[in-house]
Amino acid sequence: MSESSLSRHTWWSELYRHQTTEVWLAGVLLVACFGLSLVTEQFFTLTNLFDLLNASSINLIFAVGLLVVLIAGGIDISFAVGASVVQYLVATTLLQIGGGNWALGVLFSAIVGIGLGVINAALIHHFRIISIVVTIATFNAFFGLLMFFTRGVSIYNLPDWWTDRVIIFEHEMPNGSWLNSPCRWW
User: Fold this and answer.
1) Taking CA atoms, which of 35, 40, 166, 182 is between 20 and 30 Å from 13?
2) Which domain holds residue 120?
3) Tell me: the pLDDT tens digits for 35-45?
4) Residues 68 and 129 placed together within one structural domain of the fold
5) Residues 167, 183: Cα–Cα separation, whole Å
6) From the centroid of its chain, how far is CA 115?
């Protein structure tokens, strides 16, 4: 056995031995992708890739944000409720000022989101409480305050400008169809 094949064998066996669940999950995903590519012609296309990325963008943003918190050594349970509070406050603010654009929506969202994060950070730092306890508490506080002030009523009657899309990437495919990545902005 050559040295390079031995090192590859050692690498694979070490990965499998220490990350068994992840290796099996990756294998199942590869089999599922291979099966879907055999069943349909549309699975391994750029259009489908962009559709999957667009549909998963919110979850990806949450995952990246939570990854940063985990790397820093903490855990944040309140991020989903924080996002709901941010959405509600930004939506009502933009409706009250008569509209806006995507840049104003992102700016307001960042300000409110950072403000909620600073509340968590201040509580953790000042009282020396572990992050999971604080974020569970602020999760309940944020959600309770949101339900109290909104009386549990969601916003359904949004103006037409709310659903305008910004095309980030657009390309005409050889078959004449358009590949684009639309994003819904405020």
Assistant:
1) 35
2) 45-184
3) 998 998 888 88
4) yes
5) 6
6) 19
